[in-house]
Design a protein that fits this description.
3 helices; elongated; single chain; alpha+beta; Ribosomal Protein L24e, Chain: T; two-stranded antiparallel ribbon; two-stranded antiparallel sheet
């Protein structure tokens, strides 16, 4: 699976490491993607999902199914 959050769309960004001599080398800034096991009380089951930590905060605030409905996604699309 790619390093991309299916809920927020966060993906790696490109940037530069800048040395003291101002020499620049390319680097990648990866999103903070975590694998979590979340409980869905509506379906009375556990689901394993890969999401960014900012999406995890929104999911814990609104609930997984409500947040998926807002984003226009289904549970099958984000399940690992």
């Amino acid at each position: 699976m790619a390093r991309k959050c299916p809920l927020t769309g966060k993906k790696p960004m490109a940037g530069n490491n800048v040395a003291h001599s101002n020499k620049r080398t390319k680097r990648r800034q990866l999103p903070n993607i975590q694998t979590k096991k979340l409980y869905i009380p509506e379906e009375n089951r556990w689901v394993r999902v890969k999401l960014s930590t900012s999406a995890l905060r929104n999911v814990s605030k609104k609930g997984l199914l409500n947040y998926l409905k807002e984003q226009g996604l289904t549970l099958k699309q984000v399940q690992v």
